[in-house]
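Hi support team,

I submitted a single chain yesterday and got back a structure, but I'm not sure I'm reading the token output correctly. Could someone confirm the output below corresponds to the sequence I sent? I've pasted both exactly as they appear in my results page.

Thanks,
R.
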Amino acid sequence: TSGLLIVAKKRSALTALHDMMREGSVEKRYLTLVPGRWSNPLQHVKVPLHKYLTAEGERRVRVADEGKAAHSIVRLVRRWRDYSLLEVELKTGRTHQIRVHLAHLGFALCGDDKYGDFALNKQLEKAGLKRMFLHAAKLGFRHPLTDQEIELASPLPAELEAFVVSVEQNEVREYG
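Hi R., thanks for writing in. Yes, this is the structure output for that exact sequence:
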């Protein structure tokens, strides 16, 4: 995942940030590209997630009733014939939450090597997408020590922006 990351310089700030994240007072929004045509302009995804280890010791997550509550809000940013660009706002911060929620709905992230469509990922790699399309685009919170409102934004990195442009150009070629 590319994009924004919060790092605390003081332990007091770190514990305050942890509390804020638990309370849901840190706004976290990600951009992702998925194969297929996402139809809803706004969709709340509330399905519990359960962490487990594979036989090889790899950490995985699946949707399961015995899992912890997880809430994602998905907004459609742009839709093409074969792909959809989504903004996902996290209301909880579970491991692999966006990846598992969207894969559960049939929209695995482009380039996701754990929960994705492996055959499609090979095609995407040949077309220029050499990584998972997940980007931490926006963070909003009150500074844990000064209480100042902080809003941060990060544009898509060049390789993801280039891939979106290529999707757009292919769309224009096919329909233009």
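A quick pointer for reading it: The chain has a mean pLDDT of 94. Let us know if anything else looks off.

Best,
Support desk
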